[in-house]
Amino acid sequence: MESFEHIPKYPVQTLAKALDILHYLKENTSTEGVSISEISRALSIGKSGVHRTLDTLMAYGFVEKAGANSTSYLLGWGLFDAGNAVPKQHTLNGANYIPQLEKLCNRFSETVNMGVFNNYETVIICKIEPNIKLRTNTQVGEREPLYATALGKLFLCDFTTEELQGYFENIEISPFAANTITTYEKMKAELAKIRHQGYALDNEEYFDGMICFAMPIKDFTGKTVSGISVSGPSRRMTAEKLENIKESLSTVCAQLSSFLGYNA
Amino acid sequence: MESFEHIPKYPVQTLAKALDILHYLKENTSTEGVSISEISRALSIGKSGVHRTLDTLMAYGFVEKAGANSTSYLLGWGLFDAGNAVPKQHTLNGANYIPQLEKLCNRFSETVNMGVFNNYETVIICKIEPNIKLRTNTQVGEREPLYATALGKLFLCDFTTEELQGYFENIEISPFAANTITTYEKMKAELAKIRHQGYALDNEEYFDGMICFAMPIKDFTGKTVSGISVSGPSRRMTAEKLENIKESLSTVCAQLSSFLGYNA
DNA sequence: CGATTTGTTCTAATATTTGGAACGGCTTTC
DNA sequence: GAAAGCCGTTCCAAATATTAGAACAAATCG
Lengths: 264, 264
What we know:
8 strands; alpha+beta; about 260 residues; 9 helices; about 40% helix; globular; homodimer; DNA-binding; six-stranded antiparallel beta sheet
């Protein structure tokens, strides 16, 4: 499974280290920042190297000192800035389709998500939330595993048998919720069903008590490049409601697919 | 003016080049991507180096090929992902204060922006828009010059005379709109006025026909770390409305400032 | 107050990046 | 239809930049 992830033939090791540091910083959730020594230990990079790398990243605003007199580092607003430029360069950029997504959200009073496939995960690129207290808690920019979500399973439908097998061999599987599909065999059957139905259902596979309905957006090659999902607590997601969601979603997804050159 | 921008003492040149490439890619606005040769020419980096760097960046999802068979590159969703992790690490993260900002937006039916100071520019970290056709067109993640906006002038208020002078010497000044302040002398007077008033007004200084009202959020050191602005077309921004905005904003900003430990 | 641990700086040894050249594929041009 | 040009990719040896480790002062901890 060579396409499982992109492995550069001639990696720039210095850059790779910097990106590892950036990734490590990203995992940090506090506002206190991370110290040079901690990074050095965690990634087995010499202190001086970490220091110089952070210094350079700081010059570009990709990291910042955690405070005026702090020696710890946080991700910087320059990175935020750069990240926000990404959607503008992609045809599927979410922001363009906010009206349609809002309409869906308003009609069903449930959270609407739009996600793209990237590096064998789903990246949420747009989210519209209803004004209801109880709601799903995904966030824009968040990554979700393919195997545990409705959107993700849509992307898995494009995998060949070998790719799917490779995926299950390389990924660490966690049972997020009651019905998470954790084996290759079960997923194979599930995907066959999804391909036949034309939609995917996450029936308490990612969050307990949460159901998510998703349909694919395909480009001119027929590849599923994105998808839209509607998710909510299972007691609100009745069979009738799901049927209505299916109708609405299929219209919107067909629209966007044809916009990308897809011929049904 | 040594603090004008951070210049690393021991730069990691390889990393700096990669970040330059990333920056160049960011400037691209099309969905077609940028070719290796173009980058090589624009930044005077050898083709092979650009190639290897992009390969490494691609492994981390920071860049992507523009299409299945394309040899051009775009910013990747991995960068989007990383960028969206930034606000979570900052106390001032906008997302936390959406309710307050929405209230402001609803009350005045104008765009509300929240921005932070970063690398001598303003970065918009949160934006709430009213459902009105005519509205300002800033975007989240966008950078704005300090000298031409209400939020920016708030940050300039913290500059010493030397720093302000250095700023005007190092920055390229463009007259964005009719009333853009383009000279050090005029800005000095303007800042004195702002410090006295406690708020900043952008009276058609950034976009013609647009007025923006902003107030500062300060941390425990008294430094202006962020600000909130309300902006709209000048004919809607009457004196009376501005007075009301001032009242509302001062309440919210005082709240957030005290949350950061500021004692008025 | 001593003992760690921190960030920072320096240096020499090393391993890395670098740019140029070469190759094949593709498009453009004559 | 041939040739010239430009593209991305690969390879190599020369040269440069990175590295690890030690040394230092400052801060933190017990």
